[in-house]
Amino acid sequence: GELSPLELAGGFSVFANGGYKVDTHFIQRIQDMNGKVLFEADPVVACVSCEMQKRGKAMPVSAEAVIESGLPKQAGRVVEDRIVYVMNSMLQDVINNGTARRARALGRNDLMGKTGTTNEQRDAWFNGFNRSMVAIAWVGFDDQKKILGASETGGKAALPMWMEFMRTALQ
Fold it and tell me: Where is mean pLDDT largest: 21-25, 73-77, 81-85?
């Protein structure tokens, strides 16, 4: 089976946000040249009370009050806390002691991830995240008959791209 980088990001986002399934989206908002909002994404969020706290407001007491307040919809839980804890611990170990330990150069202790390489090095990837951001780096060919090279693994070929992006994105 195959997954696109976007599908991988959606899957890893469940672990990044504590077990809740949120939808990935490309565009947050579109405005015209006068600042009029033409489109604004309305994704579900993993923590409605967190959104309230950001806005400096008290949490509404009912679902109807949440809707009336203009807050985003609450995402559904799809993975139990204990499973999220174990997975995140293992994925943090990939960076602390495993195939992505070069990511320690970012100087962060909140990063988790997974390197990957297909059979015969046809493509390589790194899925990495913290609690607020998921990013996927993929390298390969659309033509699966081509190979990257014998030593082109996720930790060697994809991880450096991810690190370069995250170095800026995490600021």
Answer: 81-85
The model's pTM is 0.78
Per-residue pLDDT tens digits for 113-153: 999 988 788 889 999 999 989 999 999 988 878 889 888 99
Q: How many helices (H) and strands (E) does the chain have?
A: 5, 7
Distance CA 63, CA 61 (A): 7
The mean of the pLDDT values for the chain is 87
Beta bridge partners of 112: 129
Amino acid present at 131: R
Question: Strands of 112-117's sheet, edge to edge?
Answer: 112-117, 123-129, 134-140
Helix, strand, coil distribution of the chain in percent, nearest 5:
40, 20, 40
Q: For residue 139, which of 147, 130, 131 has the smallest C-alpha distance?
A: 147
